[in-house]
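Student: I would love a firmer grasp of how sequence relates to backbone shape in proteins. Thank you; the sequence and its tokens follow:
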Amino acid sequence: MPDLSPLKSYHLPNGLSPVLYDKSRHYYGGYWQVVLELCCPVAVCPEHLAQYQNHEELCRLGEQLVYNQKIQRMAVHQDQLDTVRQELLTSFEANALPLIAHPDFAAGFIAKELRRHQNKNKRNFPAFHE
């Protein structure tokens, strides 16, 4: 069972506080799947609600959404675990973290989740014609 204690926590200037977990697992012989998963709670704030005409649908998503992102590498020999973990962490901090730290990230993520929710509802409830 992987250790679910945080590998690293961040406090970004846009108010978000993502947490990075190491969910690596041994899968065969001396080989591992190295998995780092970022979980970032995003509050659905009143300023986000003002952007949408249909506040009810946005409110149905809840008071908080969670942005998740995984980075991983397969078939890592046990001798290379720490090196690969550090490479993935460095890559994440250089490439993904600046995007999450952007001032408009929360609003964009909420808009994407709202569209996903609306599309899911359209697929689940097809219109019937008489």
